[in-house]
Amino acid sequence: MKRKTRNKIILWVLMLTAAAVLVGGTIALVLTAGTWKAKVKESHEKVCNKGWECSGSKYCCNDTITDFFKVYQFENLFAKRNTPVAKAVGFWDYQSFILAAALYEPLGFCTTGGKQMQMLELCAFLGHVGAATSCGFGVATGGPTAWGLCYNREMSPQKDYCDKYNTQYPCVDGVEYYGRGALTVYWNYNYGAIGDGIKQDLLHHPEYLEQNATLAWEAAMWRWMNPIKKKQPSAHDVFVGNWKPTRNDTLNKRFPGFGATMNVLYGDGKCGQGFIDDMNVVISHYQYYLDLLGVGREHSGDNLDCAEQVPFNPSYKDDQQQQQSG
After folding, report:
1. CA–centroid distance for 291 within its chain
2. How confident is the model at residue 140 (pLDDT cuts 50, 70, 90)?
3. Which pLDDT does position 5 carry in this prediction?
4. At a CB cut-off of 8 Å and minimum separation 6, what does 285 contact?
5. What is the largest CA-CA distance in the chain?
6. Long-range contacts of 292-298 (CB under 8 A, 24+ apart)
């Protein structure tokens, strides 16, 4: 090969190599710049501090619960809770609710979206609580929806709710895991998991949920804000719009809304069985609270029921590992 031709080839190789290095460096620079911009954006995300109730979070830039939910409104929603026939007289109060909520408001509990969404979530959460703790019945004064927070524990339990086959949260000798709390907790594995979540030894001391109202509220809020299993939504997520249904969810008629909160919390205990009373009573409490707080049941939202929804966690398929609230 002639020297002149060989030099041209070498020159072309060097030029191509330089071009490749230049392109690669440019791409790397662009990627680095993109990553840097993302980090800068993340680090510059606005957070707000509103004292003891909500601090260090973007959600604290919205109204806090005490901005739109006052003591008199709590008293109005749960007006019958301290009547002589109630079973938890003097236990539930506004202060314990707000103290517990302050732990979850920075995470988006009733602080997600605008004021209407915040009030909707508050009514949705309390709707579940009211239905779970009501001692009202069809002819009760004020109707069945007026008797929320009547109970803080299951009366006359028929069993100890000990799953002896659960090794993650084994039953403690002499301890009974009957229903307690604001979103009623049953079974040893539920007490264990929720106890881990709120950093309380509920496996050994489930009675805490009937002795301390703040802890009872906290356990309920933890349950509302956290999914049963990884890669599944929480009740909070399906209600405020954080959850986007997959194709499988759509095929199983699971859509965002109040109905899906029942699916998350109760599974086939209330969902997928048509318009049964157990499901309807939860909806009734939700809408009753919407009316009392001035939002109005006409804003209940789409997908209000779960009558035709396939449960996220069917009890017949995975009974031992579920962490249903009852």
Report:
1. 23
2. low
3. 52
4. 126, 127, 128, 130, 131, 134, 145, 148
5. 110
6. 292/73, 292/76, 292/77, 293/69, 293/73, 293/77, 293/119, 293/122, 293/123, 295/116, 295/119, 295/120, 295/123
Cα-Cα end-to-end distance for the chain: 87
- Give whole-number Cα distances, 59 to 54, 112, 201, in Å: 8, 6, 29
Tokens of 86: 């109630």
Using alpha carbons, select from 136, 132, 131, 130 the residue that is nearest to residue 83: 136
- Residue 58 contacts residue 107 (beta carbons within 8 Å): no
| Residue 3 to residue 6: CA distance in whole angstroms | 5
Measured distance CA(149)–CA(250) in Å, rounded: 35
Residue 185 bridge partners (DSSP): 180
Q: In sequence order, which residues have a C-beta less than 8 Å from that of residue 85 and are 6 or more positions away?
A: 135
Q: pLDDT tens for residues 203-226?
A: 999 999 999 999 999 999 999 999
